[in-house]
Amino acid sequence: MVPATERLSVSHLSELAFEAPLHYHTEYELIHVISGSGVEFVGGGSAPYAPGTLTLIGGGVPHLHLCAASDRASALCEVLYFPQRLFPVHLSELSELRWIDVLLERSRSGVRFTGEREVEAFVAAMKRIDGTEGVGRVCILFELLDFLGRSGDYHCIDAGAGPCAGVCGADEPLWRVHRFLLGNLGRKLTLGEIASSAGLSPAALCRYFRRRTGRTVSEYANALRMARVCNGLMHTDQSVARIAAEAGFHNLSHFNRLFRLTTGMTPTAYRRNLGLCRE
Fold it and tell me: Whole domain around residue 81: which residue ranges?
């Protein structure tokens, strides 16, 4: 899914299919699942999704939705995109916008709302936005974000994401590393190679990465590898060992432990739950 922000700052797109690969963009994304189920990857975390799921994803945060095979043809979502530039530079200093500031900070970790009231508020707000023009659209957005920010019914999908992870521009080191990793996940990489892709020394890259993402380069690379593994389990008949190796996991026992920690299940169980286990 690609944000349509050329004409409108607040863009509501409905009845979208889950077709995008692992990606990110500078806009915030509030995504509501209409139909279908699967696994949602946000940053270095993951969580199952089902109809009614509502998640806020921060700008610059890699994300991916893997839909179950049985639901793929009919799976749909609606998405609200909105840019950082809508908000004052010193947002945290404005008491009236305190809860919006809190919510946007949390979005760096992927905020999954767990209450029915939050989903109902989103659906109602989208109907109002679709019937409104001009500044009224932004006012409705701010009201919705304030409501969601005050909610206690949520959890963070990537609980390990640091508070300093932020918007990433196409020319920034984080984006250059992201592209380099995606193009080289299948082979063993040294920290020096990765650092060179960003034009930094290994030590500088480690400091930069921790500051921008809250995790190490290795943790970030493993999150990308894990998303590729899940995609392989869903869309191919290849063995788990081959899929893991092609994603860069060359130690199968280490991969199995990491996969269970990430998804809460074994690769075989993951495939079976998505209707893809071929025995």
Answer: 11-156
